Every structure is written in structure tokens, then in C-alpha cells.
Amino acid sequence: MPIEIDVVTLAQSLAYFIAAYTIVTLSLNLEAGFTGVPNFGKHLFVAAGAFVVASIGNRLSAYIVSVLYKDEIIKLIQEDPLLSRRITEEDIGRLWSMYADPLGNRDLDRIMDKFFAQNPELGIIMFMLIVVLAVAIGGLMGLLISYPALRLRGEYLAILLLAAAEMVVMAIGYYWKPLVGGTTGLFLPRYLAVFGQKVILGVTILLILTALAMYIYAQRIANSPAGRMMRAVRDDELAAASLGKDIARVRRDVIIISSAMAALAGALIAIHTGSVVSTHYQRFSWTFIPWAMMIVGGVANNSGVVIGVALVMILQKFVDIVKPLLAPIVPFDPVWLYQIGLGLIIILMLYMRPQGIIPEKPSRTLNFEEVFEDILEDKVEDEQAKKMIREGRATP
Amino acid sequence: MVVNVQLFLDTMAYASVLGLLSMSLTLTYIVSRVPNFAHATFAAIGSYMVLIIVWIMGIYKTGPSWGVYYASLPVSFLVVGIVALIQYLIVLRPLAKKGISIDGLMIATLGIDIILVGLLNISADFLEDIFQRSPDKDLRKLVTYPRSGYLSSYEPTIMGITASSILGPLLLLVSTIGFYLFLTRTKFGTAMRAAIENPQLAETLGINVNLVYSVSWFIAGGLAGLAGVVMVMTTKLNPAMGWILIVSVFAGSIVGGLGSLFWGAIGGLLIGFLEQFGVYYTQIILGALTGETISLGNYRQVFSLGAIVVMLLVAPQGLASLNWHRILSRLGLKRW
Amino acid sequence: MAPILEVDGIDAGYGKLQILFNVSMEVEPKDIFVIVGPNGSGKSTLLKTIFGLTKIYKGSIKFEGEEITGKPPHDIAKTGVAYLPQTDNIFAQLTVMENLKMAAYTLPSDLAEERISEVLDRFSLLKARLKDKAMTLSGGQRQILAMAMSLIRKPKLMLFDEPTAALAPKLAAEILKEIIKLRDELGITIILVEQNAKKALQMGDKALLLVGGRVMYRGQARELLEHPELGTLYLGLKK
After folding, report:
1. Residues facing residue C81 across a β-bridge
2. What Rg do the C-alpha atoms of chain B give, in angstroms?
3. Which residues of A are less than 8 Å from B126 in CB distance?
4. Which residue, B76, B103, B142, C92, has most beta carbons within 10 Å?
5. Residue C103 belongs to a domain
6. How many domains does chain C have?
């Protein structure tokens, strides 16, 4: 069976995934690679961005539209043969809550899309407003976790973050419909109607630009004195304790910024997709895969991370392509093989090349001569004796 | 009624499952110093064994039978024990020996979890396929089970009480006491405690530390398998059923302090009761306030997360670290 | 008499961090051999190296003429060497009796019982505490328990790493007395790393002074004690 590949679509989709994962994985690398925060709940922060867009964004847009453009929206509803029967003029005040409900969402989405097509400027404003909101909430969550992150031991922190993420995504996200419509999900208004038919391409370009900015920021952190200090602290708890407040502030800032970045990615992913379904923000996709990418590429190395992202994404696309070939042969969904394969790759990488494809630049290790010199300074008062020992003459 | 009897019985089964899982998770943590993120999926494997037993032993035709227990328990213990042993021997031990950091080891257990869930998904696909094609009409009815089956309809009852409500606590009790006797009364058990406390010294005394650790992982996996058998009587079967359950299991272990098996079991039990009764009373209170019927069963993990947060803030070393003598005397219970 | 232990030109350390540089020493049977030196000079590392707990880059170690360089600790233990680390030399969570049983882990059970009662006769203070957890013992009692545990395997050479650290002076003296008794009564060769250089040099036969991982002095313990410069320079001994 020949496989037909639409190269343009494939390239565009690959670019989108690579950009989205680059942002998330770079932010994970800032936390885990540089500051030593093992964020096992990364999917919570990506989900947060998407949930803000769907939950707050949908309500806010519908509210603003129903208040500021009441007449226009009533007209649109009346033009729609199905909706005109269901929604009366009195319902306009409830439009914001109807649009965030999976039942009303489907129908109203048509209207919202039409509205933003007629008012693309408002769409851009709403888009920016909502993305800023998502970033702000992501940053706030980062501030929240920086409290335990700077105090708890790594294992406890990993457990706490994973538990928080699973609780929010798998319990509240799945079952509490008012948030993002549970497992049914919510459609989003087409905010970026300005791009016309090329919305997906437009958002992809936005994601690529964000990824670039993120890369520059991460590089700046890595090469700054604070960045070097953070790595030293990550490797030595004693140093962490003694360096104290300054470094704690830098670490907190990094956690806030990387959480905000993950939320930004989440928001853009949602807008790219045009909908938010809680089941898309699972541990496998947005915690495990970014970790796999980071480990494959090289922990605490930004360019390594980008390579890791590209490799894993290319593998995923490859699997997508050969899937139809495998499907008739094996009596199960080949997608599980991809999951199992990724799990194996992580373990094998840890075993064979734990430093990743591109290792972290080595920091200076302890050198015996220096230690020896310190001991001398510390213990021996007499200058003459020091000299003798240095020259190896101090044997009786 | 202030306390709902049926709720209490259901809770006994669920809380015992958490007790077993938190206890066995604590054991692997004491041995390898890494929280095993695949632990709840161990239990899920045990749960799938029950479905396979129901199918192979023809229980789906005959209805409720003790077979679901006397066949599933040993099979699950063995299968999951071996899975855990493999995880330790071919993944965690070589990685730890290479000096991989704790973060690396944790992500490795996360990787194992992904692999195991992938394998369970493949098995579920297989089972669905087999059930669907079967000429047996009764078996065809099982087709939805591999992804969303309640197996409690196949468990027997004792005086009208579902067996899991009695068997769960019994299993927890027997394994706790059995473990206690094994660790204190046998030479190998003592060596196990010695090797866990100070592996270097144990090694110089000629104790085979690796064997001790392997046995610990096998037993821990086995106990998780037993938990899975009881668990499937209270939860829907699904390959990823461990993903949310792990929150409760970790909560139990952290409440217990991740340092003592006994306290791990207590922690798990407490979390089970906290979740179930927390949900129950919150439903009643919210129901009274809003005048509507409110169902919060899906949010039970909120209480677990709360327990983790409170515990890490108040007593990061868990209940085991509290000075119980002082607490009891403050409460005027010293004599007791 | 042939030396029981020969250390020849050892370079050793942890991973890439080298601590010992070209260290050589010979220990005669039934001697008390003392290793002294300032903090961080590699004394404990030397003991660990003999017992196979560090990485050896160069040189050789022979016990009773047999090469033990690079062997794992449990193999070295089987040849008759016992190592008593400064801390963590007992199982604190186990009872005293369980500790002794673990020390006799590899022995057949009748022999184990015999050896345990032998060491209990020697250290009678342990008898009253058999059922107590080892963590309830005082610092001195812990050292005694650790000694008892190594004696169960009837070692020929015992390596003591600062057995009196953190002990009150009176207790420390008692522990050192016990160590001398092990040599006098059982004929065990002792290598002792001690913080209290004066006490150690007084009881020792031979001595080695390590500074910065290098041998600074090797010879009679008494001579080092009376050496005009080295004692004051490195060991804080007053004249």
C-alpha cells in the first residue's frame, strides 16, 4: 500500500509540534536542568495555559461580545435557523456561561466564529488579552510552587507536583464540566480571523517566534553568572545552604518564568487547535515526552534540548506515517508501541549516555592541588614549613 | 444516620488497597531511595489478572465465585512480583550503580510506568479482540470489560457483604503481621533490615545485599498485585487506572513518612478513609447549602493532595516522626 | 619476621579526586601501627583503601603475602581483615543480639552461637543489653559492640578508624585499653587512625605521619612523638 504524504501539511505540523515542545522542554530544562527542580507535573502548567484560554477566555469573550456588541450578536443568532429557536433575547445575559458549557458551546461557536470574522481587530485584542492572562496565571502558579520548590527535597517535590497535576487535570479537568467542559471539551472562538484561512500557519509562526525568544532567554540565563551559580548549587546542597538568599531569589524567578512559559505554550497550543479537551493534557504528552526530549538532547544544555525535541518529534511523525502499515498486521493499536518505545529510549539513554547527545559544558571539578593548598593554609602556620612541604622536602 | 454502613464497608476495601500499596511503595523507597512512579500501575496489572482469571476459569458464565480470589491472588502476587523484580534488576539497579541522579531514577520509573501502561493497553486490545470474536455469547458480553469493566459482579458475598470489604482488611492485616514476623523472627528478615539500614556494613559481613533488595522488590510488587485484585472490585478497570490512584498511594506513604512499613500501611488506610468520608460529608454539606444532590466521588484525590501538602508543611517526616507519647499525654490518654 | 601487610606506592582516591600519593608502609604481625596526621590528610582514606573501599590508581597492597589490591571489601574481609569505620559501624535499628547474629551471618549456626558467647564473655557489658536496640547504647558501648562484631570472625588484622572520636576522655582511654588487650591477649595486628596523636603514639609500636596525602614520616612511634619539629608542626603536640 503506497503511503501518500502531503509534504506541506507534514512540514507545517512538524514545525508546530517542534515549536510547542521546544518552549515546554526549554522551560522544563530551566527548572530541572539548571535549578534542579524535578518538575514531574509539567503538564499542569501547559494545561493551565490551555484551561485559562477555554475557561476564562471563552467566558470573557462571550461576555464582552454580549455587552458591547449586543445588537450584532442578536442579529447573528436570529440569522441562524437552529439557534434562533433556542436562544431568545433574554438569554443574551447568560451567553458567557452558555459558551463555557459543553452543550451551548457547540452551537454558539458558529456564532462566535462569525462574529470575530466580522470584527478581526477585536479578535486580536481578545487574543492578546487572553494570552497575557494565561501567562500571568502561569507565573502565579510558578510563584506558588516556588515556595515548596525551594524547601522540599527533590523526591517530595516531584511527588507533590505530579500529584497536583494529576489532581487538577485527571480529577477536576475530566469531571468538573464548568472548567473546560470535562472530557467533552470546549471549542474556542477563532480569535485570529485576521489570518483568514491561514490561522493554523499564523499560530505556528507565533509559536516558532516564541520558541526562539525562549531559546535566547534560556541561553542568557545559562551563560549569566547567576546561571553558573545555579548549576553549582544544583550539584551541591551544602553550597545551596550557604549561598542563601540571592540564589533563592534567582531560582524563584526562574521557576516563575518557566511556569509562565509553559502556560504560554499551553495557550498557543489551544488556540492553534481551536479547542481544549482536558484529556489532551496528560502526563504522557506534556510531562513525560518533554523529559524524554531533555534527556535525549542533553540536560542543562539548551541546544541539546532543541535537538532532542526535533528527534523525538520526527520519530513521532514517522510512527504516524507507518501506523497505517502496521495496523493490519498487529492486533492492537500501534500507538502503544510508540509509547513503549519512548519509555525504552529514556531508560537506554540514561544507561548508555546519561549526559544526552550534547552534554552539559563541564564545570570545573575539584583539583587536588587546590585542596592541598587549602589544607596547608588552614592547618600550617609557619611559612617556612609550608614552603618545605610544597617542595616536597619536608621529610625527616 | 451519621455513619453510612455501606460506605464504611466500601471504604474498608478501598482503604485496605491503599494501605497495601502505600506499605509496599514505602518498602521499595526504603530499599532503593527512589519513589516508584510505576507502583499504582503494578496494582493495575494485578487487576487485569482478575479479568483474565474470570475469562479463563469461566467465571463469566457461572457468576460470583471464590475463584476470583483464590486463583487471582497467587497469580497476581507472582506476576506483579516478577514485574517489580525485573524493574529493579534490569533498570533501577544498573542505573543506580552507574551513579544516575535521583531525578534520573525517578524519570526511569516514570518511563517504566509508560511502558507498563502501554503493555496493558496492548493486552486490553488483545482481550477485546478475543472476546469480540468469540462464538460464546456470554464471553462476547465481556468486550467492554478490558477498558471499563466493574468486576465486583463476580465476587462472592459473605452474609450479604461483598467479599472485598472483608478480604481487603484481612489481606492488609495478614501481610502486615506476616511481614513483621518475617523481618523480626527470621535470619533473612533480620539481614534485610540490616542491609536496608547500612548496606556497606552488611556487605562486609557477607550479607548478599543484592539478593535482599531483589527479594524486597519482589515482595513489594507481590503486595501491589494483591492490592490490585481487591482494587478492581471497587474501581473501573482501565489500563491507565494507576495514573490517578498514584496520588492517593503517595499521599498514604508521605503521611506514613516513607520510612516505616507499618506507618505506610496506616498512612494508606487513613488516606482511604479521608478520601471516602471527606467526599461523603462534603457532599452532604454542599447538598444542604445548595439544596441539590451533589456527587463528588471523582474528586476524592483532592483530599489526598491536601493531605500531601499539609503533611509536607507540618511534619515532612510523616506521622511516624511525631512524638506520640507527648501527644497521647497531652490528650490525657497516657495511661492507655 | 615477614610483614603481615605491605602497602607499596599507592595512589588512591574517590572517582577523579585523588587523595593519596605514593603511600607505602609495612606492618609487622602483632604490632599496633598508628597513622596520624592533620585533618583531611587522608588517614581514613588510607584505611579504606586497604579495605578496598576506594579507587586505587597505582600501587599494590599485600596481606600475608597475598595480593588484595582491587578486591571487593567482602572478599578482603574473608581473608581475615576487619575494618571498623568511625561511624555507622553497627546497625542502630537492630538489637545488640541481632547485630551479633548479623556479624556471624556467614557462619554455620552452631559455630555462630559459640563465637557469640565467646565475645559476650569478653565484653560482658553487652550481655545486659542484648535485647535493646543498638541505637540506645552510649557512644563507648557502640564501639565495644562494633569491636565484638568484628571479633566474631576472628580477624588477624583490625583496622580502626578513630574509635575514640566524640567520646569523653575517660571512655576513650578505656576503648584504647581494649584495643591493646586485643593485641596482647588475642595476638591481633592493629592499624589505628587516631585524632589524639599523643595517646596513639604512646601506645603504638610503629607510626606513619600523613600530610596532604603524602607520607611525611614512617618509623617508630616513640621517635615521632619525640621528634623536635614534626610533632609540633602537624600534630599540635607540646614539648
Report:
1. C157
2. 21
3. 331-332
4. B76
5. yes
6. 1
Q: Encode pLDDT of B121-138 as tens digits.
A: 999 999 999 999 999 988
pLDDT at B2 over 60: no
Helix, strand or coil for residue B149? Answer: coil
Q: How far apart are the CA of B203 and the nearest CA of chain A, in angstroms?
A: 25
Neighboring chain C residues of B98 at a CB cutoff of 8 Å: none
Give C212's contacts in chain A (Cβ within 8 Å): 372, 375-376, 389
The pLDDT tens digits for A52-107 are 999 999 999 989 988 888 888 888 888 887 777 777 777 888 888 888 888 888 88
pLDDT at A298: 84
On whether residue C181 sits in a domain, the answer given is no
Q: C46, C52, C41: which is closest to C23 by C-alpha?
A: C46
Q: Do B111 and A343 touch (CB under 8 A)?
A: yes
- Length of chain C as a residue count: 239
- A150: number of Cβ within 10 Å: 17
Give which of B86, B102, B115 to mutate to test A binding, by max A Cβ within 10 Å: B115
For residue B143, the distance in angstroms to the closest alpha carbon of chain C comes to 52
Tell me if B126 and A332 make a contact (CB, 8 A cut-off). Answer: yes
Long-range contacts of C169-173 (CB under 8 A, 24+ apart): C171/C138, C171/C139, C171/C140, C172/C196, C172/C199, C173/C199
Would you say how long chain A is, in residues? 396
* Sequence-separated (6 or more) residues with CB below 8 Å from residue C174: C140
In a domain, C95, yes or no: yes
**H or E segment and range at residue B117:** helix B102-133
Is B237 buried (19+), middle (13-18) or exposed (0-12) by CB count in 10 A? buried
Give SS3 for A282: coil
What is the spatial distance between Cα B50 and Cα C45, in angstroms, rounded to a whole number? 55
β-bridge mates for residue C32, sequence order: C190
Largest interatomic CA distance in chain A: 107
Q: Give chain C's end-to-end CA distance (angstroms, integer).
A: 34
Give the relative orientation of helices A7-28 and A302-326 as an angle to the nearest 10 degrees.
140
